[in-house]
Structures are given as structure tokens and as C-alpha cells.
Amino acid sequence: MTLPFFVYGTLRPGEVNHDLFLRGRTLSEEPGRLADAVLYDGPGYPYAVEEPGGGGVSGELVTARPESYGALLAELDRLEEYVPGDPRSLYVRVERKVLREADGVAVRAWVYVAGAGVAARLRDAGRRIEGGEWWGRGAPRGQGVPRGRGVPRGRGVPRER
User: Fold this and answer.
1) What are the DSSP calls for 129-145, one per residue?
2) Which of 32, 57, 70, 108 could form a disulfide with 132 if both were Cys (CB 3.0 to 4.6 A apart)?
3) Beta bridge partners of residue 38, listed in sequence order
4) Are 89 and 81 in contact (CB under 8 A)?
5) pLDDT tens-digit readout, 23-81
6) Are 58 and 33 a contacting pair, CB within 8 Å?
7) Three-state secondary-structure class, residue 96
8) 21-26: which pairs have CB atoms within 8 A and are 24 or more residues apart?
């Protein structure tokens, strides 16, 4: 199934992973908002945590070029340290409806949200980002921290007590 991606951190335009992974591989990038989620700060990158009635998370709906889609999906899964069926995944890729800002239309998209263990630790001891907008947090725009390339698992995630 080919769906757009909803990105809310280092994959957004102007951030380091946008240029590394998305530049030249997209058809469109449009502002959007993921409802029923909250955003938590991590050093260098954020985590969206699903929460009914949550204030929402701001980001972009990214539609990949058809010829880039398969490779891009695999690369983003590696970047987000997502392994289907692995409960230790930092993020999980889920299909969710995202509201396109331009017209308010709900668009089905892939979203990387915090894995169950990470989400539980963040809810317990994480720093929530009010308003759901990551820019200006952690790393300055354009200086995010690429993951999935030698960064230890769980870095920046509050440890269990």
C-alpha cells in the first residue's frame, strides 16, 4: 500500500534528515496535523505518542515519487529503528488519518509513533511539548541528529525506574 508519510521532526523541510532522505524523492510536501497524539522531546529528535484527545502534532504530509517509494519506505524504517513485530522498536509505523492544513481533508498516511515501551516511559517521565510543534526544540533547525546509523538504541528515552 503506497501512502504518504507524515513527518514531524528531523525529516521536515529544513532539517538534516530531510535532505539526507527526502530531497528530490518527493512529489509534494504539505503542512498537516496528526490528531489524538502528543509530542515528547528527545535529544535531537521528537516522539509522537498516541493519546485520544491529545492536542495533536504538527508536521508535513510527504508524498514520495512512485519510483522512490519502496526504497524510501525501507530507509525510513531503518532510520526510525522500526522492525515489524519487534516490541523493542523505538518507533512503529502505523496508518493514521492526518488533516491536511490547506483544506482540512483527512488523508491516510504512514506515521512513525513511539513504540509501546518508549511511549510508556515517556508518559511516565518524558518532557511533553505543548502545542505539538517540534521546531526550536532539542537541536536547532537544520542540525538534527540522524538516527539508525550507529546511534545506540533507546538514546534519549527516559529509562525505566
Assistant:
1) EGGG--TTSSSPTT---
2) 57
3) 49
4) yes
5) 999 999 999 999 999 999 976 689 999 999 999 999 999 999 999 999 999 999 999 99
6) yes
7) strand
8) 21/72, 21/75, 21/76, 21/79, 22/62, 22/64, 22/72, 25/64, 25/65, 25/68, 25/72, 26/62, 26/63, 26/64, 26/65, 26/68
C-alpha cell at 116: 509501546
Q: Which three cell numbers stand for residue 20?
A: 539526507
Note the residue count of the chain: 161
Q: Which residue has the cell 525505566?
A: 160
In whole angstroms, give the CA distance from residue 154 to residue 161.
Answer: 14
Q: For residue 122, which amino acid is it?
A: L
